[in-house]
């Protein structure tokens, strides 16, 4: 569920030709040892492993420098969220909301966190506030629709997914989730129609393709 949060994180890669040039340049030194490949793999692994640590250091430094800046609090909370430190994440999102009660990113990310913790009622209340105050926030409507679907509040789920379509008429995901909702309601033909509509906008949509195959098999 979680779609869409406000502050979201990309990697550089050496081109094939550049890498080939490097190998040719040093092949005389390292031939037969496998050292170059091993080190490249190790460094890339280290890069990935330390990315979150680097983000954490930056976010903490920003908060220390400007503790009253709600955006920095959200950024720090989001890093904690990605690290799986949900307690610290919730604390930072709450701090951001104390500083700026209307901050969309803080409330939205807090709602996603609550959903991750299976505190669905709290997540629902927060997401309902998010879309009430930000009626054109597509990710908010999509996330609330998914939560309603999970909680078996199907009519409300359909309402949110249809709102997404009003804001983003070519959303294959919205059609897919409308199909999922109708399927849960036992309205198979309506489900099929929406899966097919999803595939019109995205022929490779994995969920819609799999759902149609499942319906055909049943």
From TrEMBL:
InterPro entries: TPR-like_helical_dom_sf (IPR011990), TPR_2 (IPR013105), TPR_rpt (IPR019734). The keyword Transmembrane applies. The chain crosses the membrane at residues 14-38. TPR repeats lie at residues 70-103, 138-171, 172-205. PROSITE patterns: TPR, TPR_REGION. Keywords: Membrane, Repeat, TPR repeat, Transmembrane, Transmembrane helix. This is Uncharacterized protein. The lineage of its organism: Bacteria, Bacillati, Bacillota, Clostridia, Neomoorellales.
């Amino acid at each position: 569920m979680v779609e869409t949060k406000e502050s979201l994180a990309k990697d550089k890669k050496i081109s094939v030709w550049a890498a080939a040039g490097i190998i040719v340049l040093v092949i005389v030194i390292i031939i037969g040892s496998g050292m170059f490949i091993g080190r490249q793999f190790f460094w890339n692994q280290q890069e990935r492993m330390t990315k979150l640590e680097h983000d954490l250091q930056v976010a903490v430094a920003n908060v220390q420098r400007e503790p009253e800046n709600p955006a920095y609090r959200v950024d720090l909370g989001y890093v904690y969220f990605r690290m799986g430190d949900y307690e610290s994440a919730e604390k930072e999102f709450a701090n951001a909301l104390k500083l700026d009660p209307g901050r969309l990113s803080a409330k939205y990310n807090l709602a996603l966190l609550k959903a991750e913790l299976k505190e669905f009622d709290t997540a629902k209340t927060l997401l309902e506030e998010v879309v009430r105050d930000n009626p054109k926030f597509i990710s908010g409507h999509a996330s609330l629709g998914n939560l309603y679907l999970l909680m078996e509040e199907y009519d409300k789920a359909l309402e949110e997914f249809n709102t997404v379509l009003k804001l983003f008429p070519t959303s294959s995901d919205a059609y897919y989730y409308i199909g999922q909702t109708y399927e849960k309601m036992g309205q198979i033909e309506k489900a099929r129609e929406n899966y097919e509509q999803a595939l019109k906008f995205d022929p490779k949509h994995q969920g819609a393709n799999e759902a149609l195959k499942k319906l055909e098999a049943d």
